[in-house]
Amino acid sequence: MLDYIIVGLGLSGLAFVDKIANENKSYVVFEDFTQKSSRVAGGLCNPLVLKRFTVAWQANEQMKIAVPFYQKIQNKIGKDVVLDLPILRRFNSVEEQNTWFEACDKPILNDFLYPELIRNSNEALDIPFHYGRVKHTRKIDLAILLSSYLEDLDQKGNLIKDSFEHDKLLHHNECVEYKNIKAKHIVFCEGFGVHKNPFFNYLPIYGNKGEYIIIKSERLQLKEILKSSVFIIPVADDLYKVGATYNNKDISDNPTNSAKEELVNKLKKVIKVPFEVVDQVSGIRPAVKDRRPILGTHPSYKNIHILNGMGSRGILAAPVMARALYNHIEKKYQLPVEVSLHRFDKAFELSENK
Ligand SMILES: Cc1cc2nc3c(=O)[nH]c(=O)nc-3n(C[C@H](O)[C@H](O)[C@H](O)COP(=O)(O)OP(=O)(O)OC[C@H]3O[C@@H](n4cnc5c(N)ncnc54)[C@H](O)[C@@H]3O)c2cc1C
User: What is residue 60's predicted lDDT score, i.e. its pLDDT?
Assistant: First the structure.
């Protein structure tokens, strides 16, 4: 009998699988490539909310675990996927500059915010009110990281490239059974795919679609990440990711013209040189109204667990949440109430009584 079945290898699945692999647990991973959120993400490892110059929920603490986590995986796969890349925040007004300096004085922020205005020297950019600079941020190349990790799992015989069929899962007292596989536990890390999961689709995880355009511009010559009304993220020679959009009405899979138009219009307000849109990508963020992840054990089945609800900050949250879930399952540690799935037990009871 295996220790674990894991369903889904996005950021959540990766963080949990890596934890159990380090603990020498036996496991198999199912992945069907139906959700793309982690593979198309911008890869920003940034603890700040750059609209308001505040720290995202527990992001400072998460950063201390997340950065070494990705660096360790980088060493394991032998590819440079974690890049030190500062973010330049374009100011829109003198008021914003003042808010930046007020933020610089706060102890929780002063390690991240460089307390000086930076003048723009790149003629391709329109930056009348200068920049602020965010330190210690990273860009993670998630597409390469995830595909290399999957390849490694495949070579070790730990990967099944197939859709997990929930109606074929049997739960016994001491284990679960799926087709011919028995395991002590199953952990669902399906992202927005959870809406097809009859064990957990009572949870209020809604889809928030995000899109990026990929542009080519020889004259832009931007080396840092630029944040204006959109992020401009250097990805390769003369290629940049621009985005992302947020849309909780459209949960279709494919990129849209309206998102492209929105992003092109925003970009034109910041860059003054020609560019060409060469590609567009989209994914659905697994978001929760209270903006907290959801993890824990099913209210009725002690061997069935979930790790989900990472919203727009999966890079920072997933490694910490995976560790908390592992300790909950294996060592019976309590989960923090703000991330426990038991905050939705009322919704579970209602779904049972339908
Ligand atoms: C455009 C965009 C930009 C983003 N930028 C950032 C960023 O810069 N920084 C950041 O921290 N976060 C960012 N995010 C958010 C981040 O991507 C999410 O928080 C994260 O991807 C969630 O990871 P997950 O593993 O929980 O879900 P997912 O990435 O959706 O992974 C779930 C996996 O489960 C698989 N799966 C589902 N159902 C089944 C099934 N039945 N059988 C087998 N496999 C199944 C799917 O194929 C998928 O691979 C961005 C998101 C988007 C869309």
Answer: 87
